[in-house]
Every structure is written in C-alpha cells, then in structure tokens.
Amino acid sequence: MRAFGAAVLFWLTGLIFVREKVQKKDLKRLFLLAIFGVCINQMLFLKGLDMTSSINAAIMMITTPILVLILAALVIKEKITVLKLAGILLGFLGAGMLMYSANHAKGGQSDALGDLFILLNATSWGLYLVLVKPMMLKYHTITILKWVFLFGSFLVLPFGIMEVKATDFSSFAWEAWRDIGFIIIGTTFVAYLLNTYALKALSPSVVSAYIYLQPILTAALALYLGKDQLDVFKVLSALCIFTGVYLVSVNRNSHQKSS
C-alpha cells in the first residue's frame, strides 16, 4: 500500500507539473534505485521493526551517515575530510548516547535478526542516496521518483500480496485509514520528495547526517505528550548531535566557496 500509494501520487504530480521523458538507458539505473530505495529499504525496515524494539531500530538507523560516507567515497569518490569525519562521529556518539540511555533505562532486549534487518535497511538507503545523486543532475525530482516507485511497487508485490489478501480491511476504523494515509503521504511521498530534492544542493553524506535530528524530534514530541523527561544527559546528547550536523554542513559550504 505504501509503495503503490506513493507511486500513484508521484505519477499524478508528474502528469500535472512535470512532463519529462526518460532515456531508455537510464531506466536500468532507475530500476536499481527502486531495488535499494523502495524494495529492500522499506521491506527490511518494517520487518526489522516488527522483530526488534523501536529503540534498537533507531540505534541501527543512525549508522546511515557513516555508511553513506563510506559508500560515497567508493562509488562517487566523495572526499572524506577531517571535519566531515569528526562531524559524523560526533553525531553518531550523541545519538548513540541518547538511545543507549533510553534502552538501558527500560532494560530492553532486541532480536538479533531484527537488528540485522535494520542495519541492512540503513545500508540500502545509504546506497540509494549515493546512486540517485548523479541522476539529479539530469532529471527532475518528480521524474526520478515516479519511475523509482513504479518499479518498486512491482518489486514488493510478490512479497506483500498474500498479506494483503489475508487482511480484513472492512474491520479498519477510520483512525487506521488516517494513519495509513499519513504513512503514504507524509512519510513516503513528502519524505522521499524532500530527501531527493535536497540532493540537488547537498552531498549524500550531508543529507544523511540529518537523520541525527530524529532522536531530538522524538524526544521533543515525547516531552510535549508528557511521556518523557528532560535531563542533563539528553541535553549533552543533543549538543553532540547538532554539533556533528553543523561540522558536516559547514565543511560542505567551505568546499563550495573555495571552488
């Protein structure tokens, strides 16, 4: 539902606002992007989250920027500078401290296979960010995503069709349909659109570094709902995270000015 729903939205948006043809030779790259950005990424994340705790999933997900940095260096020869490496490691330290503290407080345990699925999902997403970067120089964001999700929809179909058939949709309350709508529109259509569009101006490692903001946003929401408390440890973690993102970003800005 997530893949097909987003595909419909991207194709409708393309028909209305962006009418751009894709060269046949680039369809292979778009199909590859669908494998890593939709099929492997989404399926392993949801399956891994089902098998492990959300805290452990978040810990594994913050490895994405490190994986992107390594992949970008190997695939598109992105330079690894001291500031960029320091920023990513500092951000990883802050997010890791925050999540470890929450996990330790609750005494949570994770499923090893679920954690592995989340790690593979993070690797897949990191590879997607690296591979999609060159395509951004050639095509509009909507053009790329409509093909990626079209291919991705058919890739996930064999894995999800039986579960769809076994689901009693008539028993869904309106809140369930509301949440499904948010997942399709908010966390898929809008999120992929903004992530891919950001790659026009930023490198894959900078885009991925902002995943460190997730623990901060989660903590802020928990505080607002009265489900968590702010302490010194969390403040220090937040400082590490924002400093890490700043170091990665300022390094990119300095490189652009010097060139």
Structure, explained:
The structure is a single chain. The protein is mainly α and 259 residues long. It has one domain (2-258). 81% of the residues lie in helices and 0% in strands. Helix 2 (24-51) crosses helix 7 (141-165) and helix 4 crosses helix 6. It is globular. The N and C termini lie far apart (45 Å). The mean pLDDT is 81.
Largest sheet geometry: none
Helical amount among residues, as a percent range?
over 70%
Q: Please report the total strand number as a whole number.
A: 0
Residue-averaged pLDDT: 81
Summarize the helix and strand pattern as letters: HHHHHHHHHHH
Poorly predicted parts: none
* Share of residues in strands: under 5%
- Supply Rg: 19 Å
Name the descriptors.
single chain, 259 residues, globular
Write the layout of secondary structure elements.
Blueprint: H1 2-17, H2 24-51, H3 54-61, H4 64-75, H5 82-106, H6 112-136, H7 141-165, H8 174-198, H9 204-209, H10 213-224, H11 232-258
Tell me briefly what this model is.
By secondary structure, the chain is mostly helical. The protein has helices at residues 2-17, 24-51, 54-61, 64-75, 82-106, 112-136, 141-165, 174-198, 204-209, 213-224, 232-258. The protein has one domain (2-258).
